[in-house]
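Researcher: Next entry in the queue.
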Amino acid sequence: MDRTMLLGVEGIKKTILHGGFGEMPRFITGTKVSFHFRTQLCDDEGTVIDDSKLVGMPMEVVIGNMFKLEVWETLLTSMRIGEVAKFWCDVTHTGMYPLVAKSLRRIAEGKDPVDWHIHTCGMANMFAYHSLGYDDLDQLLKEPQPLYFVLELVKVQQPSEYDRETWALSDEERLKAVPVLHGQGNKLFKLSRYQEAANKYKEALLCVKNIQHKEKAWEAPWLKLEKMGNMLTLNYCQCLLRQEEFYEVLEHTTDIINQHPGEMKAFYMRGKAHVEVWNEAEARADFDRVLDLDPGMKKAVKKELAILNMRMEEKKTEEKLKYKGMF
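Model: Structure for this entry, 327 residues:
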C-alpha cells in the first residue's frame, strides 16, 4: 500500500507502507505505545540515522507524558496495531530529534539514557560542551532539516494494563515516588546490597532530573530540586565507593562541586575517592576544604587522613618491591 495523506497538522505527510489490523486503538493519557522506528534523511539515498530494529528492542512512549519529541505522539496516534507508515516531518517538528536520539543511542550502548550528573538541560549542555558526542547529531542540531520517520506500531497498552515504571509517571507522581525510592535505597544500603541501593537512588534521581529540566535554572523550584538531586547523587556515590568505582565517584562529585563549591559532603566523598586511587595531594586539598566548610568534621577528617597515610605507605612498599625485582 502506498497512500500519502496529510494528518491535519502542518508540516507532516504520511504514507502507509503496510496496513494494520483491527479498530483504531484508544490513545488516552497514560497509554503505553510500543513501536519500532527508523529515522532517515530526506536525501537521494534515504540515509538512515537510527534504526531501533538494529538495537533489537522497540521504543516505548506514554501518551501525554511530555515526551521530548512531541510529534511522535501525533504520528503514532494516527496508526493501527501492525501498521507500518512513513512520515515526512518538516523542521518545525524535528528540531529536538538530535537530543532524543542521543538518549536512545546511550541506552543502546548500555549507558545512562541521560547525562543526569550534568546539572543543565540537554540544550544547555550542548552549548556548554559544543557536542552531543555524535557527529551526525551535532550536524543536525546546527542545521535542522526535515526528516523521515518510518514507524511500526507493535503494541498499545491502556494505563490499567501494565505496571507503570517511574519514567511513565506524571511529574506529580514522580515527586511522590522520590522519597519512597530514597527510603528503599537507604534500607538496601544498610543491608549491604549496594547495587540494588544504587539502582533505587538513580531511579529517584532520574525522577528529579525529569522534573527539573522543565523549571527555569537557578530559580526557587529548580534550586529545591537541585538540592534533592545532589543528595541522591551523593547517596549513589556512597554505593559506588563500596563497589570500588572510585573514578565514577570523582566524576559525579566534581560535577556537584563545580556547580556548588560550598557542598561540603561532595568534597568529603571526593576526598575519600582520591584516597583510594592514591591521589595524595588532591585528597589532602579536599579534606582541607571540608574543614573550612565544617570544622565539626575534624574527627572524621583525621580518620580519613590516617587511612590516606596508610595507603601511601602501602604504595611506597609496593613500588620498592617492584623496582627491587626489576634490578
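Model: The beta strands are 3-6, 12-18, 32-41, 48-51, 59-62, 84-89, 147-157.
Researcher: Noted, moving on.
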